[in-house]
Amino acid sequence: MKIEKKILQHSGSLYATCYSEKLDLLFTGGADNIVASWDPKTFENTDFSIKTKSTVLSLTIVNEKHLVIGLFNGDVHIIDLEQKKEIKFITHHKKGVFAAKYDAVSNYLILGSGDGKMSVWNCETFELLLSKDLSDSKIRAIEIHQERAYIGTSEGVLYTINLKELILLDSQQVNEEGINSLCSLPTKNAILIGGKGAHLAVYSLEKKVAVLDIAAHNWAIYKLLVINEYLYSCSRDKTIKQWDINSLDLVERYSYPEHKAHTHSVNNLIYVKKHNYLVSVGDDKAICFWKL
C-alpha cells in the first residue's frame, strides 16, 4: 500500500478517528480539542466540526445516526449527525473515555474509562443499562465477539461481559504489561491482543489462554485492525505493520522515511471500505490515507 494523501491541519496529536458510511465523512480528533470532518473523495476539510472542552480520546459512529465523542475529562457527547446537534451529554465517567464500542446486534454502546469503570448504554434512548468498576487501572480496549464484550485494562486483565444478560462472566490475567488494543480473529475462535509491552498475542476463547505470542513492535501497540486477509497494527514506535491473518507472518513494515509515513507515534487506524483506504492518525498531527 502507499500513501495517497497526508493531511496536516490539526494543531495537536491525534488519537481518535471514525467513518460514517451514510455521510461519507471521516472524523478525527485529539489534543487540539477539535473533532474535524473530511471528505475522503477530495480530502477536503468540511464545515462539520465540533469544539470540545478536553482532548478527544475516542470517536464512534452509532447506527449511522449518531457520533459519540469520548473526552479526556470523562465527558461523552452524543451528536445527531443529521441535525448536527448534541442530543445527549454523559458525565457518568470521571476520567478519560479511552475506549468506546458500538454493538449493532444488541444496539448497545460500551464505554471504558481511565478509572477502570465500564458502562453499557441503550442506543435507542441512551439510558444507562450497566455500570461496573472493573479495575483500578485504565480501560483502553473493548471488542465485541459473539454477544460478548471483551474489555482490556492497563493491568493486563481481560474481562468478559455477557451482553444478553449484562453480567460479568470472567476475568483473566493475559499479560503483565497491559492491554492497549483488542481485535477479533475471524479465522479462529480467538481475540488478538496488542500489548503495552509491544507484543501481539492470540488469546483462545476456548482455552482461555494466549496460544501465540509475537514480539511485534518496539513500543506499545495502539491499534489492531483486520481488513480482508491481512491484520494491520500500529505502534508508538512510529510504524504500521501488515500481517498475514492466517499465519501471522509479517508481510510489510510501513515507516518514515521509506513510505513518507508518520514521524511520531501512530495512535489509531480505521478502514474506509467505500474508497479502499486504511487511514492512520498519530502524534505528528497527521492523517494518512493509505490506498490498499
**Secondary-structure arrangement, i.e. CATH architecture:** 7 Propeller
- The geometry reads as globular
CATH class: Mainly Beta
Order of H and E elements: EEEEEEEEEEEEEEEEEEEEEEEEEEEE
> What do we call the CATH homologous superfamily?
YVTN repeat-like/Quinoprotein amine dehydrogenase
Distance between the termini: 5 Å
Q: What is the count of distinct domains?
A: 1
Main sheet summary: 4 strands, antiparallel
List keywords for this structure.
4-stranded antiparallel β-sheet
Structural account:
With 292 residues, the protein is an all-beta fold. It has a single domain, classed as 7 Propeller (Methylamine Dehydrogenase, Chain H), CATH 2.130.10. It contains no helices and 28 strands.
